[in-house]
Amino acid sequence: MALVDQLALESDLSDSALCQLLDYLDHPDQDQDGRVRHHLIQKAHQKRMEIYGNRVFLRGLIEISNYCKRNCVYCGIRAGNPGAERYRLTLEQVLESCRIGYELGYRTFVMQGGEDHAHTDAFLTGLIHEIRTAYPDCAITLSLGERSRESYQALYNAGADRYLLRHETADDGFYAGFHPGMALSVRKACLEDLKAIGYQVGAGFMVGLPGQSNQHLVKDLRFLKTLDPHMIGIGPFIPHHETPLADQPSGSVEKTVVLLAILRLMIPKVLLPATTALGSLNPVGRELGIRAGANVVMPNLSPLEVREKYDLYDGKICTGDEAAECRQCIQKRIENAGFTVDMARGDHPDWRN
Ligand code: SAH
User: Fold this and answer.
1) Is residue 262 part of a domain?
2) Hey, which of 8, 36, 219, 221 would disulfide with 170, CB 3.0 to 4.6 Å?
3) pLDDT (tens digit, 9 = 90+) per residue, 295-346?
4) What number is the average pLDDT over the span 143-165?
5) 343: helix, coil or strand?
């Protein structure tokens, strides 16, 4: 209880205190009737109400390609999965998704994809320029993995505003085990580059990766506190049947919700999505996240014919719903949970414009 109050007062907890809190919350028997957990979630909710009120921002997610040169061990679209049916949206398809999204009220488009060789700077800057021209009032968010600083700069100059690049896990050795041929230092350097260029930057991690300990998670929290990003995406690990982690258990919804609440208290102004992975593991997972301090949801705007192919993990929700259905469904869920939808761009409160 005292640790939660300390967090809520924005006094930074030590690493060992954070670890103690996570350890304690792992044992429901110890936490009588979930008192500390409940208190934590209440405090996080209060903090989000102070800063954002009861509004939840919606972003339209367009999954532009599932070609990927990387081999992230957990991911269903890894290069080493011959079973993945590959697709790449054309410029026209992306623009059509934006058009539909704009009509539905979206004012942020998030373009996410694998690291696709065909996504040259020339292609992406052309695409961004078209969207920027057609929808000058919208935010353009990219989530396309690691690129050079020059490339990030070119995409920014073309009109991109925000970039999501989860650090995935902030422990070097642990990171290396899941990302063959990659290094956490490079990922971190990308995040620093993105920040220096002027993007609103999102980092984040997976909860429940096989072998992950609370010490690992404390490293994630510490890294995020230091980076102080504008957005933080966290979600439970969910196995994909065609990856080396096929037989591993999923991360826990409860733990993800606890971590969302802790992040809301540690980095109060951050934009914090209740992710699709959270909603995929539990039918009301996103609602639980929103009640614990999350204030963003990213409904799917990808063309229906490619939805199932952007197959990061098993059991991903909303693969069969039209953009308009997702939009309505999520609005109902948010309202039933006692919150309201906000369709504005939803920049970070400290964002200079
Ligand atoms: N290529 C981009 C986008 C990756 S997909 C990039 O590198 O940033 C977006 C996120 O999905 C990843 O950052 C990862 O955290 C998450 N993800 C991938 N596989 C997953 C799985 N099996 N379970 C849960 N989340 C997963």
Assistant:
1) yes
2) 219
3) 999 999 999 999 999 999 999 999 999 999 999 999 999 999 999 999 999 9
4) 98
5) coil
Q: 112 CA distance to ligand 1 centroid (A)? A: 10
pLDDT band at 353 (very low <50, low <70, confident <90, very high): low
Which residue has the least CA distance to atom 7 on ligand 1? 145
**HSE of 46, CA atoms in CB hemisphere, 13 A:** 13
pTM of the model: 0.98
Rounded to the nearest angstrom, the distance between the alpha carbon of 312 and the centre of ligand 1 is: 7
Span 132-142, average pLDDT? 98
The one-letter amino acid at 99: R
Ligand 1 centroid distance, CA of 224 (Å): 17
pLDDT in tens, 205-231: 999 999 999 999 999 999 999 999 999
Atom from ligand 1 closest to the CA of residue 243: 22
Separation of 301 CA from ligand 1 center, angstroms?
17
- Whether 233 maps to a domain, the answer reads yes
The verdict on residue 222 lying in a domain is yes
Q: What CATH number should be reported for the domain holding residue 158?
A: 3.20.20.70
State if residue 112 touches ligand 1 by the CB under 6 angstroms criterion: yes
Do 62 and 232 contact (CB within 8 A), yes or no? no
Which ligand 1 atom sits nearest the alpha carbon of residue 166?
13
Residue whose CA lies nearest to ligand 1 atom number 10: 166
Per the domain annotation, does 217 fall within a domain? yes
Distance 165 CA to ligand 1 centre (A): 9
Domain, as residue range, for 116: 53-342
**What would the pLDDT profile of 256-271 be if each residue is shown by its tens digit?**
999 999 999 999 999 9
Average pLDDT over residues 104-131: 98
Q: Which of 112, 206, 212, 245 to mutate to test the pocket of ligand 1 (most atoms within 8 A of CB)?
A: 206
- The total of structural domains in the chain comes to 1
Locate all alpha helices (DSSP H) within the chain, ordered by sequence.
Answer: 2-8, 15-25, 35-52, 91-103, 121-134, 149-158, 172-178, 184-197, 214-227, 253-266, 276-281, 285-291, 304-307, 323-336
273 - beta bridge partners? 296
d(CA 184, CA 120): 24
